[in-house]
Design brief:
heterodimer; A: alpha+beta; 5-stranded mixed barrel; elongated; B: alpha+beta; 6-stranded antiparallel sheet; 21 helices; 21 strands; about 50% helix; globular
Chain lengths: ~140, ~850
């Protein structure tokens, strides 16, 4: 067997291993219920902000703690604590991904959040103009 | 409803723009067809098809330049009736960002890409000689695809048009059509106020230089690809590499510079907290660069030894395909949930996939058809030869690339598995599970863990590969040469490990390999190239790469967040993965210890849209206990009501470290417009004589004196105005004394008060009346509803030795540039050699 063949085989083996591990080693998207069933595992939960409940950030109490309520796609709601300051324009986001794990007492602690903001370039941005143009 | 005749829409611009788009599309098709025929039929050097092909490509070039000029003028003239102009620019933006607006959107960046391929194509028409026809066929086909991205035609009743046209009027844009404003004939002149303008994150000088560099890098990958395809097509397997080599290194240099500029931008003015965050969009630019470097190196092997022919085809093909794949990733919207700066979907995903798969299928078919024909190495490469190790290095780069591609593609594979689980009868469950795959939680840690071993291997290989000779090496001599730099590198490693107190085995290995690579490559240049600057290309590039790795390692592994949460309530009680050591609240006037510094938030001021926060760094002398100011940083928050506020960090650079300061949260009240400011409760008016005392809810207020010597100019008053000031002394709860002086003015018949405010105490004083009978004056005191000190939440990080990284970047760019020069010279020499050889034969 040639050296190049050996090298090629090793390369293929590593490549295969890399792809398999990067596919199996990661977190998955889940619901709050699933996360509660497996405390300790880290999940991505997609949901919407419950705007009827308070989202709190008080830098005077703790600059690294922000809490809010999130309703996941199955409709169940949890109080989420994020170990960071309140992100800018948080209340405007229409979809939120929280990355973290379930805690006791219907809580979820998120190490990170990703926000998806609604498109800013829709017909909504024109009405302000309507008022101005009628003046 | 009546037809409205619109005024000032400037439809002529749209017509011109669309004519240029049409021209560029049709001409690129024509050029592709003619060049294809030329490559297949022309016997002569300058046959008729080739001439037609050139005319086609020139017309295409004209079209592309026409589109760009039209769009640029429209942005410059603020023609907001056009969606692209409306979305990416506005009146408030400085003119210097006109270019940034131009490529701020998807269409503009496609144009930029097309433009660079036009430039490269025109250079190739002049220089490619016998390769012109097949190479230009491939480039013209690529241009057909790119030009189609701008068409904006609706055909066959499809929901989405082909391409996204940058000359679409706002009133014809889906989502805007039907808005009542468009019933006004002169609506075009009313749109200026609503124009959104470029995302504030992009209003930065980097936005002017980073995209053109990056896109030139992306565009350049088409050249080696076209040569490889031409070689397969014309069944000339061993000649094109010499011509493609300088192009490849040119591309490596430009794309590398573009990627590093992106890193520098992120570090300097975005808030990632570092220069590389393994964001999917960043990865998308790095992926093709890795295989591009591989391509350049296997071509060098081939040039020297005429072997590894197969890999000289595969690497450029993979590189180009990866550029297309990256484009798909960043522009199809598929990364939407995972990246902070992917483009939004414009409905081009289908077209991008066709573009991608066209070239994947074409290349695969051509490679398979030529599989037998591509010459294989007759004899095995010697283990102690340069080519063996260079080839191995290229493979390690490929491995590293595969890992990044696999992880970055998780949203894509999840979608694929989701599709499969819905449409196959078997394995439904496990497929559905795979469809829920999410990207790694600790992204940076995950990638670093995987990529560090690859980096160690690459550095190891590039340390000694230059000392190997092609074919076979005298090992004794090699060891003799490599010993001195090896000893040096061991010494440097021991010193730096001790100094940095590094304990992680992988990090130590990477550090050691970086030093090894730096020393060996530097010594090689001194010893074997006799310190000839112009011949140092390879050595410099390797040294630079090693320094980049070293700088990246030290500055990230030893980065020190000095803004530690000192409040008693630790977030660790909620979750142990939460860190206290990130953000800290600072009230105005507070001094907190951070690392070796004492840090004070002294106040803020506003410049235009930006609020600048003054953060003063002090040191304390232990003996005298005195503070000395060292420097002041001014991180800022840019107010943008339309797109959300944007924070920009500020960094102090020292030779051995950077101190990075970033506002992560600012008191929302302080971000409102100053004049709306804090709200006051209704004023309480008291009649006072000098010496009288009144109390606010917290402070004691004394009317200490009346003052008739008022500087009229200071208040903008005229001579002859009657002016009296009331000097108010305010003592706060700690005994600190403040003074305020409201002023009573009689000018002509008008009586008014010039109020004075003590914003720190939240008190406002108004001098409203003088009673001549009682000699009492009326002072109205308003208290702010809530006296809260202005505060910020900030993050301060020390990045040690990050300058090593930037110096490494510059050396790498310099080295690659020298290597390109060397390659061009050698390629000319080789050709001259061939001709003279042919002359002798003749």
């Amino acid at each position: 067997m040639k050296k190049t063949h050996i090298v090629a085989l090793i390369v293929i083996a590593i490549a295969f291993g890399v792809i398999l591990t990067s596919l199996s080693n990661n977190s998955t998207y889940a619901s709050f219920k699933e996360a509660s069933d497996h405390p300790g595992n880290v999940y991505h939960v997609v949901g919407k902000l419950d705007k009827s409940k308070p989202f709190e950030y008080d830098a005077h109490v703790n600059a690294n703690l922000f809490t809010f309520y999130l309703i996941d796609r199955d409709g169940s709601e949890r109080k989420v604590s994020l170990g960071k300051p309140e992100p800018d324009d948080f209340e405007k986001s229409d979809q939120i991904v929280v990355i973290g794990k379930a805690q006791d007492g219907n809580c979820f602690s998120a190490a990170d959040v990703l926000m998806k903001c609604p498109s800013k370039y829709t017909v909504d941005s024109i009405p302000s103009q309507k008022k101005q143009s009628s003046m | 409803m009546n037809e409205v005749t619109y005024i000032g829409e400037g439809i002529g611009w749209q017509t011109a723009g669309n004519a240029f788009i049409f021209l560029s599309f049709v001409a690129s098709l024509f050029a592709a067809y003619c060049y294809f025929n030329s490559a297949n039929n022309d016997e002569l050097e300058n046959g008729p098809w080739k001439k037609l092909g050139r005319i086609g490509f020139w017309l295409h070039s004209l079209g592309v330049i026409g589109i760009m000029t039209t769009l640029f003028c429209m942005i410059f003239r603020h023609m907001y009736q056009y969606h692209y102009v409306w979305e990416y620019s506005n009146d408030a933006m400085p003119r210097r960002y006109t270019l940034a607006c131009f490529w701020g959107g998807q269409e503009g960046s496609f144009l930029l890409w097309t433009f660079w391929q036009v430039v490269l194509g025109n250079v190739l028409i002049r220089t490619a000689k016998k390769w012109e026809a097949p190479v230009m066929t491939v480039i013209s086909v690529a241009q057909v695809f790119l030009a189609s991205m701008l068409l904006g035609f609706y055909i066959f009743g499809w929901k989405n048009p082909i391409g996204s046209n940058p000359f679409t009027l706002l009133k014809d844009t889906p989502g805007f059509a039907g808005s009542p404003i468009f019933s006004t004939p002169n609506y075009a002149s009313m749109l200026a106020k609503t124009a959104t303008g470029l995302n504030p994150l992009l209003q930065n000088y980097w936005m002017t230089i980073h995209p053109p560099t990056l896109f030139l890098g992306f565009a350049s990958t088409v050249v080696p690809f076209a040569y490889a395809i031409a070689g397969l097509w014309k069944k000339k397997y061993g000649e094109w590499q010499l011509d493609a080599l300088p192009w490849t290194f040119f591309g490596i240099m430009i794309l590398g510079t573009g990627i590093l500029m992106g890193g520098a931008w992120a570090y300097e003015s975005l808030s990632f907290g570092g220069f590389w965050a393994w964001d999917p969009v960043e990865n998308a630019s790095l992926i093709p660069w890795l295989t591009y470097v591989g391509a350049g190196h296997v071509m060098i092997v081939h040039k020297a030894r005429k072997n590894s022919a197969l890999s000289t085809f595969l690497f450029p093909i993979i590189t180009f395909i990866l550029v297309l794949y990256s484009t798909f990733l960043t522009r199809s919207g598929i990364l939407g949930n995972t990246s902070v700066h992917a483009f939004t979907d414009l409905g081009l995903s289908g077209q991008l996939l066709i573009y991608l798969f066209f070239f994947i299928i074409l290349s695969t078919i051509l490679v398979i058809m030529n599989w037998k024909g591509i010459p294989r190495d007759k004899q095995e490469e010697d283990l102690w030869s340069r080519e063996f190790w260079m080839f191995l290095g290229a493979l390690v780069l490929l491995m590293s690339c595969i890992q990044i591609v696999a992880t970055t593609s998780i949203p894509v594979t999840a979608k694929l598995f989701g599709f499969l689980s819905r449409h196959t009868p078997v394995f439904k469950e496990s497929l559905a599970k795979l469809a829920n795959q999410a990207p790694p939680v600790d992204r940076i840690g995950f990638y670093n863990k995987w990529q560090i071993p690859f980096a160690i291997l690459v550095l190891l290989i590039l340390s000694f590969s230059l000392y190997f000779k092609f074919k076979n090496t005298d090992m004794k001599q090699l060891i003799r040469q490599m010993t001195l730099p090896f000893i040096c590198s061991v010494a440097f490693t021991v010193c730096s490990v001790l100094m940095l107190n590094e304990t992680n085995g992988f990090y130590i290995a990477l550090l050691a390999m970086s030093w090894f690579a730096v020393c060996e490559n530097f010594y090689y240049w001194v010893k074997n190239k006799k310190t000839n600057f112009l011949k140092g290309g390879a050595s410099f590039a390797h040294v630079g790469f090693a320094l980049v790795m070293m700088g990246a390692l030290i500055s990230t592994s030893k980065k020190d967040v000095i803004s530690v949460n000192t409040s008693k309530k630790s977030v660790k009680s909620i979750d142990e993965s939460f860190s206290d050591a990130t953000n800290i609240r600072m009230d105005q006037g507070d001094t907190l210890r951070m690392g070796d510094y004492y840090v004070t938030y002294t106040g803020k001021h506003r410049v235009g849209k930006n609020i600048l926060y003054n953060i003063e760094y002090l040191t304390k002398n232990i003996e005298t206990k005195k503070y000395t100011s060292q420097f002041t940083l001014t991180p800022l928050i840019q107010l943008n009501p339309q797109m959300g506020n944007v924070a920009e960090p500020s960094t102090r650079h020292f030779w051995s470290k950077d101190i990075y300061t970033h506002i992560t949260y600012a008191d929302p009240n302080s971000l409102k417009d100053e004049n709306k400011g804090s709200e006051y409760v209704l004023p309480r008016t008291s009649a006072l004589t000098v010496g009288d005392k009144i109390y606010s809810s917290r402070d004691t207020i004394i009317l200490s004196s009346l003052d008739s010597h008022i500087d009229l100019k200071k208040y903008g008053l005229k001579e002859g105005d009657i002016v009296v000031g009331a000097v108010m002394k305010v003592i706060d709860s700690t005994g600190k004394i403040y003074t305020a002086e409201p002023v009573y003015v009689i000018s002509g018949n008008e009586v008014r008060s010039i109020d004075d405010t003590l914003s720190k105490l939240g008190l406002e004083f108004s001098f409203s009346k003088i009673d001549p009978k009682t000699h009492k004056i009326d002072i109205a005191v308003s208290e702010a509803k809530k006296v809260a000190k202005d505060y910020i939440v900030m993050e301060a990080i020390i990045f040690p030795y990050i300058n090593v990284l930037w110096i490494g970047c510059l050396i790498m760019i310099l080295g690659t540039t020298l290597a390109i020069r060397q390659r061009i010279l050698k390629s000319r020499e080789a050709k001259a050699g061939n001709t003279s050889l042919n002359e002798i034969k003749a």
